[in-house]
């Protein structure tokens, strides 16, 4: 260790008014100070790197969160589309079933009308046959009574 001494003195007309002494102690090897400064700088650099790493991890976490939200949105849209398609298919099937039921009811009504018409025609034919038989019988009776001597 070296000692540097600085003396400041002021003289007035050859008499010393005051003397001020300052001793500065300097280590012979200033490497320790340099090492301490380097260690502090390295610690600051390590702290800066740690902050940068934390920021990068936060950005990656944010990116992962955004990706997860996008995936959830896409899955939701797909599910909504599938549900809409299923509802449309169910509505179409219900409409087809209603149309088939209406067609079957119309066919049954037409068949019933045809059967009623056939029955009416048969009844009319039977009535005509009975009337003609009665007329023929009357004609025969009239002819027999008129021709009887």
UniProtKB/TrEMBL annotation:
GO terms for cellular component: membrane. Its main location: membrane. Residues 69-149 form the ABC transmembrane type-1 domain. It comes from the Eukaryota. It is found in: Membrane. This is ABC transmembrane type-1 domain-containing protein. Keywords: Membrane, Transmembrane, Transmembrane helix. GO terms for biological process: transmembrane transport. The chain crosses the membrane at residues 12-45, 51-75, 82-115, 121-147. PROSITE patterns: ABC_TM1, PROKAR_LIPOPROTEIN. It is a multi-pass membrane protein.
